[in-house]
């Protein structure tokens, strides 16, 4: 801190100016600012995914309610004392044949409701899956850029070591002044620790992008740039069948949207 940074001079203001030159930004404040900014893309991505899941659950509830209103599962009779079903005269007779649906009929009802809701959404599940993947890739790229930016900034501001003796030649110091830094070894250890943590996070981001596939990333970014020009673009051919992570993301999103 500024209190433990002492210079061998009695010139007013020299101590403050030398400390400002030695440490333009306090280490702790710089690291807090770094953590907040680097975490921001991930926070926004999580909020986006939670909002999308809530929206999909709401649409699924509306579809289930629509199916229940179209085809009510009501019994046509009541059970008598002898255990036999007694038919009512005022109930339609065809409902006994509609009580148990087969798999094809249920699939047809769900598909019709999905097509009707597709007009409200305006997109098919493949396009929505590509949008989620695009936002995920952009958030990883933005996080990587922030990590490398803070690493470069930390290097130019502090370097890799904190010296025990700092020689200051800044006005209003009359001559070259020697200033002594408190706990320089401890600050050097934490400085290198934060360097290693930031560089490790950057390598993890690069590994994550490499696992997704660089060819697929470039293709989906290019397709996002030309989406407004070609609305009927075949997005399925951009799909990589050899990527387990993309398969899992797409299948999970399609299952959520097709319910």
Mean pLDDT: 71
Low-confidence stretches: 74-79, 85-102, 114-125, 231-242
Q: What is the alpha-carbon Rg in Å? A: 32 Å
Cα end-to-end separation: 59 Å
Strand order of the largest sheet: 1-5-4
Q: What is the strand tally?
A: 5
Helix content: 55-70%
> How many independent structural domains?
1
What's the CATH superfamily, by name?
Answer: Gap junction channel protein cysteine-rich domain
What is the level-2 CATH architecture name?
A: Up-down Bundle
Could you say which overall geometry the principal axes of the C-alpha atoms support?
A: elongated
Strand content: 5-15%
Pairing-aware structural class of the strands and helices? mainly alpha
Q: What fold name stands as the CATH topology? A: de novo design (two linked rop proteins)
The ordered H/E elements are: EHHEEHHEEHHH
Structure annotation, total helices: 7
CATH C-level class is Mainly Alpha
Largest sheet: 3 strands, antiparallel
Task: Provide a descriptive summary of the structure in words.
This protein is mostly helical. It has one domain (6-258): de novo design (two linked rop proteins) (Up-down Bundle), CATH 1.20.1440. The protein has seven helices and five strands. The strands form two sheets. A three-stranded antiparallel beta sheet has the order 1-5-4, covered by helices on one side. A hairpin with an 8-residue loop joins β4 and β5 (177-180). α2 (27-70) packs across α3 and α4 (125-158) packs across α7 (244-258). The longest helix has 44 residues, at 27-70. The chain is elongated.
């Amino acid at each position: 801190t500024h209190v433990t940074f002492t210079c061998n001079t009695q010139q007013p203001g020299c101590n403050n100016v030398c400390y400002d030159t030695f440490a333009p930004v306090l280490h702790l404040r710089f690291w807090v600012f770094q953590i907040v900014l680097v975490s921001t893309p991930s926070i926004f991505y999580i909020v986006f995914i939670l909002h999308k899941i809530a929206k999909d659950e709401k649409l699924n509830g509306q579809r289930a309610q629509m199916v229940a209103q179209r085809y009510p599962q009501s019994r046509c009779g009541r059970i008598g004392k002898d255990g036999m079903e007694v038919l009512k005269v005022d109930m339609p007779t065809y409902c006994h044949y509609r009580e148990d649906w087969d798999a094809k009929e249920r699939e047809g009802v769900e598909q019709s409701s999905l097509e009707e809701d597709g007009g409200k959404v305006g997109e098919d599940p493949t396009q929505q899956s590509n949008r989620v993947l695009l936002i995920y890739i952009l958030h990883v790229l933005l996080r990587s850029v922030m990590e490398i930016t803070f690493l470069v900034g930390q290097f130019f501001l502090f370097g890799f070591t904190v010296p025990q003796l700092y020689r200051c030649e800044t006005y209003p110091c009359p001559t070259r002044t020697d200033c002594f830094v408190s706990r320089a070894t401890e600050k050097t250890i934490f400085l290198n620790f934060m360097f290693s943590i930031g560089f490790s996070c950057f390598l993890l981001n690069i590994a994550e992008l490499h696992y997704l596939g660089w060819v697929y990333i470039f293709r989906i970014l290019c397709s996002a740039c030309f989406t407004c020009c070609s609305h009927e673009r075949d997005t399925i051919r951009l799909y990589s069948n050899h990527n387990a992570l993309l398969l899992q993301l797409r299948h999970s999103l399609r299952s959520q949207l097709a319910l």
